[in-house]
Amino acid sequence: MSYSRSTYWDQVFQDAIHGAMQLPSLCVDIMNTTQFQRLRNIKQLGLVYYVYPSASHNRFEHCLGTCHLAGKMIRHLKQQDPDLPISDRDMLCVEIAALCHNLGHGPFSYAFQKIINQHREENGGEKWENKNATCKMLDHLLEKNPHIKKELKSDDIDFIKDIIIGEPRNSQKPKFFYQIVKNTDFKIDVDKWDYLARDSHFLGIGKSFDHGRMMKMSKVIDGEICYRDKSVDNFYDMFYSRYRLHKAAYQHKTVLLFNKLLGEAFRSADKHLKIFEKVDDMKEFTYFTDSILEEILKNEDNESLKEARKKLKDIIYRSYKYKGTNEDENDQDGKHEKIFCKAVFDFGAGSENPLEKIPFYRKDETESFTYSQEELDERLLLPSKFQMEICHCFEKKVEVQKEGSLKTN
């Protein structure tokens, strides 16, 4: 009898957030590839780790957690309505998509996406998105690992990619399949549930919403995922948690400064290391991780990387002092080097209330509905606005003379 790894055994992983997670054997095979293992070396929160010392978790563990939740979600929806067109193969594809949804992240996660897009904008290039890079890396992974590719049909691969992107580009399945991992309709998905829970835990901030309750309150109506009306408070807590994490950590003023210095370092080092070309070559991209900082710093004799090393040492030595918020960006006196960093906080839907987009259902009813702003005002204590912008100003306070030596200006 021929041996098929995808039908042999599942494996259990112990996770800090979800406890024991049993993942399909084909997912385990995907995990055990060079292309997937690179995620161990990309921190989930990038340079937030330089402000919050415990935020050292990585994209690898987040992907495992998202895969676990996706499997639970698709099985729950099937249990709620056994007539839904969900096959065992569909369930596996959803789990693989959830596992692989971050394959295309570059070093320092979203900080890099902003840096490369600024570079491309300045040089007339096309916008770069990690979800497209994810699909390219998935193709590369399958090409380099034929034992995995033979377990998947071409239709399966198209379906997996569309789940990752969040829309049916090359597959034609019911809408709810594309709302599980990346929900582009109303921003509620297992990716968000895992990263909010995981980031809150490792940042030491804590969370106030229960994604397990949300899942149990979900079912498919008219082809899309809907939630019980009484769970609206829990969803407000979820979006507020997202806002709070952005304000306290993701867009912490020092993190924004470090991201800007990182961008300057990358742009300077690009002339020598061809950093921004690595995203177009999946073989190069496989080894393009957070370790790029050490690659820049260790080449002390390379004059081409001198300016990049200087910017990275400004991060290490915290060479800038905070001046305040909403300073005038044109206020450059020529005596002190200043950097301005903008932060934009919202609830995930820009200036709009994200709760208005969620399809709900009432007990024993078979039709969905959405809450109006007036109805939400009656049920919840809502903020007067859902978006705010702050500009932070920093001023250079020291310069690095040599390793370990600081000089005050």
Automatic annotation (TrEMBL):
Top-level lineage group: Eukaryota
A molecular function (GO) term: dGTPase activity
Naturally occurring in which organism (per UniProt): Octopus sinensis (East Asian common octopus)
CDD domains: HDc
Similarity-based family: Belongs to the SAMHD1 family.
Gene Ontology biological process terms from the UniProt entry: dGTP catabolic process
Name by which UniProt lists this protein: Deoxynucleoside triphosphate triphosphohydrolase SAMHD1 homolog isoform X1
Gene Ontology terms: cellular component: nucleus
Domain HD/PDEase residue range list: 55-205
Xref: Pfam families: HD
